[in-house]
Amino acid sequence: MTSGTSLPDAAVRVLLIENNPADAGLVRSMLSESHGAEFRVEWAKALAPGMILLGRGEIDMVLLDLSLPDSQGLESLTAIRHAAPSIPVVVLTSLDDQDFAHEAVRCGAQDYLIKGELTGGMLARTLSYAMLRQRDQARALRAESQAALNKIAGFLGARGGVGTTTVACHFSLELKQRSGVRVLLADLDVAGGSAGFLMKAVSPHTLQEAASNLERLDESYWNKIVVCGADGPDVLLSRVSLALKEQANSETARNVFEFARPMYPWIVMDLGRLNPLAVSLLPDLSDLFLIATLEVAVLYEVKQLVSRLADAGLNRTRLHLIVNQTLKHSDLSPTEAGKMLGVPIHAALPECGSELSEAYAKGQLLNAKTEFRRQIGRLAERVAGLEAKKSK
């Protein structure tokens, strides 16, 4: 057994650091009579021999007296937390040391027990709960660290027909090819659902299936739900034309992406238009790319949409405007549009409708070497920080 872990059917190895033989004997007796988990106690009369036992490994938790012959108070706890930060510590204290005990919990102990009030059931439950809390805290910390590294990019259209899905698909493909990391493209355009069509991804499995089977969801099952790409992103399809009631009940969708996030350094979401599902996912986005064109009517909708996103709690620094289908000769430049809207233009993509249509007819859409695709590649490099790496 490795340090800090225990199998459900194995004895929990407790290191008891206690200088009073009578108290040590009482603890051993209580744990030996436990009807739940099985405990095996290693006893040390002072901190120094306790640290030696701890250093040998195969200890699941520490039960620590705060008054020892070679260490007093929080010094003992600090030494143990430094030597084995993943192992839970429960402190033993007398009635007049409760302030010390509270301070110990603030400094990393999972719990404390008062010697004069100790019972066998209380002792076993406290140790078991301390191990569960330590495990849950470690898991949450790992997830938080992973989430800080992994990114979610959402693509939202100011209106239909501005090319949101096309941009999202090509962005995810370029991100995959240029970064070399695993990328997930989630087709969340519940009105259109054309990302799967463009990516030639066909599957009977959807996001809604994953959401309905959260308790069964593991990596093996997940790989059956997504359409795995060899050179491209994995694609997660969703059922088109979801009812508003189903869109609003989207907490399960967030749970699906919480499960998937550790597996993908990048998740790209084609959100389509603003709807209850898209709004529910806004807090999870690292960046939101708002897709628009230079048509006056579209720009008016952009201004309205930016205000709605702010009301929904989106941090303005995470919002980036992408002007798509930019003509070489236009009455309004992307820079002028950005000034008018008060939102800087993150990228301006050229109009390549005929080239993309021809490439799709030949079955080469996602590998087409068009100016549109080159610009998308530069955008992906900038978003992923690859430009900085290249310059170094």
Report what the structure shows:
The chain is α/β, with parallel strands linked by helices and 392 residues long. It has 2 domains: 130 residues, Response regulator (Rossmann fold), CATH 3.40.50; 242 residues, P-loop containing nucleotide triphosphate hydrolases (Rossmann fold, 3-Layer(aba) Sandwich), CATH 3.40.50. It contains 17 helices and 14 strands. It has a 7-stranded parallel β-sheet with strand order 10-9-11-8-12-13-14, sandwiched between helices. Strands 2-1-3-6-7 form a 5-stranded parallel β-sheet, sandwiched between helices. The chain is elongated.
Distance between the termini: 45 Å
Largest sheet: 7 strands, parallel
Helical amount: 40-55%
User: Mean of the pLDDT scores?
Assistant: 83
Enumerate how many helices there are, as a single number.
Answer: 17
Secondary-structure arrangement, i.e. CATH architecture of the largest domain: 3-Layer(aba) Sandwich
Q: What structural category arises from helix and sheet content?
A: alpha/beta
Shape: elongated
Summarize the structure.
The protein is built from 17 helices and 14 strands. With about 400 residues, it is α/β, with parallel strands linked by helices. It is elongated.
What keywords describe this structure?
single chain; 392 residues; alpha/beta; Rossmann fold; 2 domains; seven-stranded parallel β-sheet; five-stranded parallel β-sheet; 14 strands; disordered N terminus
